[in-house]
Amino acid sequence: MSEKRKREEISDSQKDILSGDGEKVNYMVNINTDDDGDSSNSEGSDIDDDDIEDVSGDEAEESDDGEVDSLDGDYTFDDNEEEGEDDDEEEEKDDNEEREDDNDDKNETENKTKVKVDAKGDGDSGIDDPSQEKLKISKSKKNLSGKLSGLRLQTTKADNVASKQENQNSSQDLGKPDEYAEDSSDEEDLRNTIGNVPVKWYDEYPHLGYDLEGKQIIKPKRGDTLDNFLNRLENPDFDRTVFDKQTGQDVRLSDEDLATVKSLMTNRVPSADYDYYAPWVDHFTHEVMEMPLTGRTESKKSFVPPKYEATYVAKRAEQIRRGLIQYTKKKEERYRYYNLWSDAERTKRGISNHLPAPKIRLPGHGESYNPPIEYLPLGAEPPDCLRRVPGWKSFVKDRWERCLDLYCAPRQQVMRVTASAKDLIPELPKPQDLRPFPTVEGLIFRGHRSIIRSISIHPLGKFLASGSDDQTVKIWEISTGRCLRSFDVEAAVKCVAWNPSNKLFLLGIVLESKVIFMNPETYLTDKVVVQQTNSVFKEEPDQGDYIQPERVKTAVTWRKPTGDEWAKGYRVVVDHFRSVKQIVWHKQGDYFATVIPEGDHRSVLMHQLSRWRSQVPFNKCKGRVQTVQFHPKLPFLFVVTQGHIRVYNLQKQRMLKKVQANSRWISSIAIHPGGEHFLIGGYDRKLNWFEMECTRRPHLLRYHRTAVRSVAFHRKYPLFASAADEGRVIISHGMVYNDWLKDPFLVPVKELKGHSKFEDYCVLDLTWHPYEPYLFTAGADSTIRLWH
Amino acid sequence: MGAKRKKKGESGEATKYITRNAAVKKLQLSLKDFRRLCILKGIYPREPNHRRKAQKGDSRIKTLFLVKDIRYLLHEPIIWKFRELRTFLIKTSKAKARKERDKVENLYKNPPFYRLDHIVQERYPTFVDALQDLDDPLTLCVLFSKMARTWRIQDVMLHICRRLTVEFMHYVIETQGLRKAFISVKGYYYQVEVMGQTITWIAPHPFTPLPTTDVDLRVMTVFLDFYITLLGFVNFRLYHSLNIHYPPKLQGMKRGEEEEEASESSIVSGRVASLNIPLQRNKVDDNDEEGGIDMHLLEEDEDKLKAAREEQQKKKKQQSLFKGLKFFLNRETNLESLTFVIRSCMGEVSWQSSTAEGSTFLETDEAITHQIVDRPMHQQNYLSRYYIQPQWVYDCVNARLLLPVQDYFPGVNLPAHLSPFEKENDLYIPPEKKLLMARQKGEVPIDLPQKMEDSDEDNEKEVYDWKKMKRLKTKEFKAKKRAMKEKEMENEKVNKPMEEGKETEEVSKPMEEGKETEEVSKPMEEGKETGEVSKPMEEGKETGKVSKEVSKPAKIPLRKKMRVIRGNVAQPKPAVIESQEREEKMLAVMMIPKKKKRLYKILNRKEKRQTAKVKRLTEKRNLLEEQKKKDKANKLAGSVPEK
């Protein structure tokens, strides 16, 4: 009988069992016996049979063993029969695939096997009481079914009632052993008749299924999780107890069951009795027959080594040679540590001019998990204990950024300044040590109604003249600040300048293109000097045979003032061809220079007051002249254009020096009374101190924030002042030494503030008192202030 | 023949630098490989002094390398390994595509790999160089030892990282090298001293750090590769310098156990990793290494030597800070960190054996002095020990003192955890730090607990004392003033007739005044320099003295008798002096040469910012404390009527 057919039959029988028909069970038994017989028949006869056939022989033997066992354990006939069948299938389990082919029938058979095995085990355990044994058998059946249902078995099981009946039966049969009392073939499918349907269909109902009589099998009560938990603690067999879905009961697995399950899980033969080391039956002999079946001679091919083998070997050899296959080589460790810095010889660092990366920034108090309260943002609270401190989310990112910095960020050596700002401040002497210098505002001269362009102090230091845009010239008394006289003139006054001579009381005034010399006599002036002045200018000087050159004639005309003008105080009027900006006196008081910025080559004119004569000293225009200044001691003239200062010797009529100013646009110049130094203020905020002998490297003072308007030296004290548009007048100490190698000693000593701004102008002119350390400033706010 | 005309880009800055793309081209590598090479060899871009010149006229910002560095890379053997790796990848992918399984297997049996030993030696010619640069390796290794395994991070790497960091910590414990430990928001900062070098690293809080998406782990693993090599060699050397087995063996171990301990898993998470068991040494050498002070350098400078000695003693004290103390750690605390800190100060540590491996004694041990607890405790089972919060341990180590435990009892509001890294010369010092400094100097008894109420009272006392002093001083001052006034009165009596008789010039008067004030203000400034200006008492004294001196030359001959008369000196107000000083400073600032002016401005701005910060912090602190007091008062007021 071929294996396939056999299996078909078994499956048929299975179906019968499932249908729950008693007769069919018997039939099955018959088949089984038949099967047995078949196998026994086949055992000796056919040598050429396949493996399975062969195994079936063994299995027959085993079934015999089973019978013996069952006899020991007081077992019934039917069981034995089943067992035989079981064993049959058991052998087949060797081959997994076959098992999977027909799950149903195999499981069924396995189930029975278990029963048998269990019985055997119990028998071995040496329990004498047959009733007990029977109980156990029934139990074991239940167990088995339960367990196997866990393994997706579809067998029908006896219900509660059935098992109870069984118990009763067994108790009845205590006395006489009845062979058929435990007929499991009947009992087997008595329990639940729902058939091969999922058990979960009954989840919602109180019953599990139906018994043979069609009555509902009620679900047994199950404890809650607490019971389960207690059960787990109390029940030593808890780990081997399995819940049977179909009966709804817990089933305890016996040792044999466990062994079987284990062997099933490890893909071994479930039966513990299976002999793996049975003697090998050699069906095909390896011995060469003496008489071969055919008489053909061997072909040549069978003697010649095949070509593909040669190529294969060559290929492998090549691979070995190339190191693709390495059989012997031990795998090298990636990280192996030893004393790397052992040899004293110091190797050179490979990278040139190595700049080590800066270290990680260390945290301050603010980064503490529990910082002082002032470091926390308002309203935030630190975690009350270390346990509550959360992980830092960007920890990995921080490290990554550090890595990025290490290999991506360009490095550069930067000198770090450890000095504090204080160290950079130069140490200067205390201003108090450099007194006297003006410190406070002493007087305010009020009276003008517009911007005061220019002020001048009488060389004796008692009067102050001021010219303003309100077309007045005022004379002030310095000691009281009183306005002594006010002269109305025709135009805005550009510049006023006292004649430095003691013998004359004369004020030069610039009105557009006119230069007027005025005698502003007051009741305080020295009568003798005033009279002398008036007498000097009563008559025109005698020109003799002097003929004015043409270029002078067209530029300047001297004239006597008219009657009205004389009454006003005018003594001489000099008309220029264009508007004049400035008038500068020579220290003797006879000569003076006027500046006409738009005058081209005639922008600087020299005049002699006593003889009413003028000169044009320069033939060429060397840029727009800003201002001119006489040397205090020598007959030199400083002519200041935008970027240069030219020093001319008037006697020799020669240029002495041309100085490149360190300034883009010079606004004013002041010459030190010693004559060896001069100071230049520029519209580019710079103040330069030049030495005549070394004009290349001026001392630069950058303490003004806006354009410097005017600078002035004190005649007596080592002081100079500069005024800028920001409204500050800065007084500096400027000591000059006789030693030529010594640099002048320049220290700013005082900053004076007081003037208010008017149309971006503030202080427009400043002058020092001739012998006191007083400073006068003329402001755009139409006041003059005295600082002492 | 004239000199050859110079061409652009052939000398100077232009030849010193090479752009990144040019370097990649020169090395014939892919950009990825170039980066890897740079990381391994420690090559980094440089900022040129003059970018336009360095880039041959191009002013765009490019990454520039030194040509020398790139030339140095040319002969690196690892470049060939990179190429091999590339071919290996090509081969395997090809074989995979062709489904040649055995070939793939064969290839994977021997993948090309490189070792970085020679690079470590090149980058760190001496061992000290390596130690100096150990901050980043440790931090990264610690991070990776805590990270979860992903497909990017191999298991092996994590294990090696864990092993190396544990080994290093063991070394620190053996040498008691821990100097500072700080719990920040970001993690635990440890600063240790190894062979005279300070090493700082950060360990994350005990959670698994998760990489965010914008993190490129590939770059980090390249770094890690090098760091693992470096750290391994450093550990080896360190262990050998102490005569300890490397890889570490624990004390009191049998032979069978040794092998077990040496296995990877036990080091990663076993008794070795617990840090709680001392290591086995080859020989026991008891010669204490005396003196880390370099005598040669300090011979001439007595003060420096003294300071260094003091520091040395303090260090020793810190090293044995927890000697004889037994700590028991509750399971909610950070075992690793606490064990490391306590054991490096010679304390003994244990925990419940069920918490982790490596516990040495039981909780029931009566000799336990401190139990570290990080949860609210409702009952304290043992009276023989203190129950404290973990911050105590860290604060003690940083302060180098055993601080009073009362502040750190469970459930108590903890005092602020101060950073030991904050510089002491910092302008703002929080009050907690001041207290700590006083404790360190011994001005405040160490046992006194630091509580807000107490400190407040102290402050009040101080204030009170100060007021008292002031009161006393003002009394004295007044008395003196009175005396002076009387004298002045006398003087005036004498002066008046004289002034009437004298004809003074208007102009000269202000000058004299100026002179007087000038002479007076000099000592005033001296006083300011010594910082005693704020006390009116001393000012008065000094000016008094000065006025005596001044009055002598100012004497005026009288008709009747020759007498020395004390003149009346006008006392400038402090506000006047202040404004004068401000002006002087302003004038001096004007004279800073242009070159330094910018620097001065920067520094000045920085200082201003700092002072502003200090001001802000002090104000905030005062405000918060006031608020606290108010709250307390409110509470009290609220609670009384309720009762």
From TrEMBL, chain A:
PANTHER family: RIBOSOME BIOGENESIS PROTEIN BOP1, RIBOSOME BIOGENESIS PROTEIN BOP1 BLOCK OF PROLIFERATION 1 PROTEIN. This is Ribosome biogenesis protein BOP1 homolog. It is found in: Nucleus, Nucleolus; Nucleus, Nucleoplasm. GO terms for biological process: maturation of 5.8S rRNA from tricistronic rRNA transcript (SSU-rRNA, 5.8S rRNA, LSU-rRNA); maturation of LSU-rRNA from tricistronic rRNA transcript (SSU-rRNA, 5.8S rRNA, LSU-rRNA). Its main location: nucleus. Residues 202-438 form the BOP1 N-terminal domain. SMART domains: BOP1NT, WD40. Required for maturation of ribosomal RNAs and formation of the large ribosomal subunit. Component of the PeBoW complex, which is required for maturation of 28S and 5.8S ribosomal RNAs and formation of the 60S ribosome. It comes from Homarus americanus. InterPro entries: BOP1/Erb1, BOP1_N_dom, WD40_repeat_CS, WD40_rpt. One of its GO terms (molecular function) is ribonucleoprotein complex binding. It holds the Pfam family WD40. Belongs to the WD repeat BOP1/ERB1 family. Residues 152-173 have a biased composition (Polar residues). GO terms for cellular component: nucleoplasm; PeBoW complex; preribosome, large subunit precursor.
